[in-house]
Amino acid sequence: MRDSKLWKALSWAIELVIAGLLWLLYSLPVVTAGAASTALYHTVVKCIRHERGTLSRVFHESFRSNFKSSTRMWLTYLAAIAVGAANVSAARHMGGEGLTPLTALAGVIFLPAALTLPWMFAYLSRFENSWMGSLRFVGFLAVQNAGRSLLLAAELLGALLIAWLIPYIAPLLPGPAALLASLAVEPVFRAYTADAVVEDAWFNE
To answer: Measured between alpha carbons, how far is 11 from 146 in angstroms, rounded to an integer?
Structure first.
């Protein structure tokens, strides 16, 4: 029974829900949502896809070890989104119609954020880099893999839309969203880690 495909699918579903609930819990202060997102991706890939470690322990360890870098990056994205939203709001209050300099600037801010955000916290869960180095490399990944970036952005926006339209199922979405994102992200990451000499390199399996 425990080796059956049905049991494995049910186990995955339960673990995805638990991982999503952990993400919600660790994201409650809002400022910690970046570190929680890094931990969610890491946990889904390591514990659920590769069946390594204990879910709650892996989540907490990833959250703690990546807290500083992930929080700083999350605040960067929040600042960019706030500036973009302020430009849109200002354009509306000024009665602007169609494309205005303010709305164009908002697009310049929102588009890179939307295309790189799904890559960023997955990247931080696996690699170490400086703040600027992370921004540059993730930007490179997003452009080099434009098709995957559009797919990832669509998945993120789709999850947000579903959560907006059906709020009571929102707690069930983070885990599956991270799993879907990993299907697009992991093949790209493996190209960079295939030759890495690391003990227990589960991410290359």
So the answer is: 33
Other Cβ atoms less than 10 A from the Cβ of 157: the count is: 11
Q: Cβ(174)–Cβ(181) under 8 Å? A: no
The tens digit of pLDDT for each residue in 80-109 reads 877 766 655 555 566 555 445 544 445 556
Residue 198: per-residue pLDDT: 58
Q: DSSP string covering 60-102, please?
A: HHHHHHTHHHHHHHHHHHHHHHHHHHHHHHHHHHTT--SS-HH
Rounded to a whole number of angstroms, the distance between the first and last alpha carbons of the chain is 25
C-alpha span between 134 and 77 (Å, rounded): 13
Looking up tokens 């954020």 gives 113
Taking the model in full, what pTM does it have? 0.88
Torsion sign (Cα): 195, 132, 30, 110: negative
d(CA 171, CA 148) in angstroms, rounded, equals 25
